[in-house]
């Protein structure tokens, strides 16, 4: 529902309600990889509407729950995709955001583009064609690592997949831009 909503307040409301439901499920027992995965997703959705301190706090929670989902279900492509997203975001944090995280939580956020790439590739290995967005991120990672030939290959592979989610549709423009930047 959150993804279908158009108003920011409505998106936030759906995400908050969903997070409360998953919290209640986790209180009954925390052995469900799906619950941890969806808790992470909802943390990420809520973080989009928060200030820097809350976003960082949500980032730590997101990572904790993705790690728990992977511990319970290591062959879950979605959890690997989510870990890739977390690594990609952390690798792109500004100096100020990293310093804020360290000051607030006494624990620096650390991840590299290579870390993100490995997680996205693992999701693809577990379920080829798992996600158009995943293939876009693979292409972006390769480009940022200076591996343009591999980036072009993944742009092509991403173009082959249909848009399944709103995120996939949103990435179509980015794919077209990557195609131009990387050359055909």
Automatic annotation (TrEMBL):
It is a single-pass membrane protein. GO terms for cellular component: mitochondrial outer membrane; mitotic spindle pole; nucleus; spindle microtubule. SUPFAM superfamilies: TPR-like. It holds the Pfam family RMD1-3. It is found in: Cytoplasm, Cytoskeleton, Spindle pole; Mitochondrion outer membrane; Nucleus. Keywords: Coiled coil, Cytoplasm, Cytoskeleton, Membrane, Microtubule, Mitochondrion, Mitochondrion outer membrane, Nucleus, Transmembrane, Transmembrane helix. One of its GO terms (molecular function) is microtubule binding. Interacts with PTPN2. Interacts with microtubules. Interacts with VAPB. Interacts (via FFAT motif) with MOSPD2 (via MSP domain). Interacts (via phosphorylated FFAT motif) with MOSPD2, VAPA and VAPB. Involved in cellular calcium homeostasis regulation. May participate in differentiation and apoptosis of keratinocytes. Overexpression induces apoptosis. Belongs to the RMDN family. This is Regulator of microtubule dynamics protein 3.
């Amino acid at each position: 529902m959150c993804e279908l909503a158009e108003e920011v307040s409505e998106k936030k409301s759906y995400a908050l309600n969903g997070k409360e439901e998953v919290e209640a499920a986790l209180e009954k027992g925390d052995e469900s990889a799906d619950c941890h995965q969806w808790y992470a997703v909802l943390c990420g959705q809520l973080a989009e509407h928060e200030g820097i301190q809350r976003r960082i706090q949500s980032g730590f929670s997101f990572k904790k729950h993705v790690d728990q989902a992977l511990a319970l279900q290591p062959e879950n492509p979605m959890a690997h995709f989510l870990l890739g997203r977390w690594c990609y975001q952390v690798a792109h944090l500004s100096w100020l955001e990293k310093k804020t995280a360290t000051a607030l939580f006494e624990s620096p956020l650390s991840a590299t583009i290579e870390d993100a790439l490995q997680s996205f590739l693992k999701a693809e290995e577990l379920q080829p064609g798992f996600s158009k967005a995943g293939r876009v991120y693979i292409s972006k990672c390769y480009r940022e690592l200076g591996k343009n030939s591999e980036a072009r290959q993944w742009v092509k592979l991403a173009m082959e997949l249909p848009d399944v989610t709103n995120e996939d549709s949103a990435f179509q423009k980015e794919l077209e831009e990557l195609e131009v930047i990387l050359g055909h």
